Amino acid sequence: MITLPDYPAQLRGAGLRVTTQRVHVLDTLRQHPHSSADTVFASIRDRLPGISAGTVHGVLNDLTAAGIVRRVSLPDIGSALYELHSDDNHHHVQCVGCGRVEDVACAVGAAPCLHPSHDHGMRILEAAVTYRALCPECERNAHG
After folding, report:
1. Three-state SS across the chain?
2. CA 114, CA 82: separation in Å to the nearest integer?
3. Residue 79: strand pairing partners
4. Which of 72, 106, 129 is the last residue of a domain?
5. Do residues 114 and 60 touch, judged by C-beta distance below 8 A?
6. Does any domain span residue 78?
7. What does residue 11 show for φ and ψ, rounded to 5 degrees?
8. Is residue 92 domain-shared with residue 44, that is, in the same domain?
9. Cystine design at 95: which of 52, 100, 105, 116 (Cβ 3.0–4.6 Å)?
10. The dihedral of CA 134, 140, 142, 143: what is its sign?
């Protein structure tokens, strides 16, 4: 049996009020990781009549600031994507054809897993790697 995350406890643990909007945004990201704010809004607006795109943006900003959600910025994508924040150290692979994004486990180890040749006196927190690729469907379409 699959157990669903306890969103209210997660929100309270991060010092946030539990709201229907926040719970719906979290559940949408669980079902559809790597979603833009517009995609999240489109996914929940029928279930939450009266919710606005601005509210979804605000909720995503609050959840990101609280460390519950991670903002992912990738090349050639006009807006940030969001995923539930996990304690794993992972990167992303992005299809340059259709834009599909998938998680890729870090091959090196714990965050930040990669170290720059010079940190300029800064403490490195994370290293983000994006593998640019062509998914099988786009490859078939390009050669078909």
Report:
1. CCCCCCHHHHHHHCCCCCCHHHHHHHHHHHHCCCEEHHHHHHHHCCCCCCCCHHHHHHHHHHHHHCCCEEEECCCCCCCCEEEECCCCCEEEEEECCCCCEEEEECCCCCCCCCCCCCCCCCCCCCCCCEEEECCHHHHHHHHC
2. 23
3. none
4. 72
5. no
6. no
7. -65, -45
8. no
9. 100
10. positive
Verify that 20 and 43 share a domain, yes or no: yes
pLDDT in tens, 92-117: 888 888 888 888 877 666 655 666 77
Return the CA Rg of the chain: 17
CA 38 to chain centre: 13
> What pTM value is reported for the model?
0.78
Q: Is the dihedral of CA 14, 18, 22, 27 positive or negative?
A: positive
In a domain, 21, yes or no: yes
